Amino acid sequence: MIKAGTNLPKLILAGLALFFLISGFLMSGDSRTGWFAGYGVGLLAIILHYVTSLFSKRWNDELFFVVYTPAIFVRLIIVLAIFIGLLVWEKFDQFSFTVSFLISYICHSVINIILLNKELTNRSG
Q1: Is the pLDDT score of 83 beyond 50?
Q2: What is the distance between the alpha carbons of residues 60 and 42, in angstroms, rounded to a whole number?
Q3: pLDDT given at position 71
Q4: Of 2, 11, 17, 78, which has the fewest CB atoms closer than 10 Å, so is most exposed?
Q5: Exposed (0-12), middle (13-18) or buried (19+): which is 37, by Cβ within 10 Å?
Q6: What residues contact 23, with CB distance under 8 A and at least 6 apart?
Q7: Interhelix angle for 61-89 vs 94-124, to 10°?
Q8: pLDDT score for 1
């Protein structure tokens, strides 16, 4: 049983990463390539968000909203450009790529939101 105060989000992240690795290796050829490419692009999007969060955590509220909000759209454009570029120029299974990207992005986003909420709650309290 997991006790309160443990690093539950990190355990969930490790479990999801293991699930994605096992799922990817069970697929064949083009599906496997698409699966890992989609997971990588989703992970890249979250890493960009996390790096921006690290830089912005010491800013005051006014500067935060002036810089952070446009940065969200810049990150979205970067991720969409990479996503569309890979779909157009690479020859792998587009369905597994898209599904893997969406699952990866959603799972990592939820974990990132939990971690940021925990950090902000600890900082304000």
Answers
A1: yes
A2: 29
A3: 77
A4: 2
A5: buried
A6: 35
A7: 170
A8: 44
- Tokens matching residue 29: 């050829």
Question: In this structure, what DSSP letter does residue 27 have?
Answer: S
Mean confidence (pLDDT) of the chain? 75
Q: Which residues of 116-125 are buried (b: 16+ CB within 10 A; e: fewer)?
A: eeeeeeeeee
Q: Helical H runs in 1-125?
A: 8-26, 29-56, 61-89, 94-124
pTM beyond cutoff 0.90: no
| Residue 38 · residue 97 · CB < 8 Å | yes
Token reading at 94: 């587009």
Structure tokens at 13: 């992240």
Residue 111 near residue 45 (C-beta atoms within 8 A): no
Predicted confidence (pLDDT) per residue in 26-60, tens digit: 887 777 877 788 877 877 777 777 777 777 777 77
Residue type, 84: I
φ, ψ (nearest 5 deg) of residue 44: -60, -40
Backbone angles phi, psi at 34, to 5 degrees: -65, -40
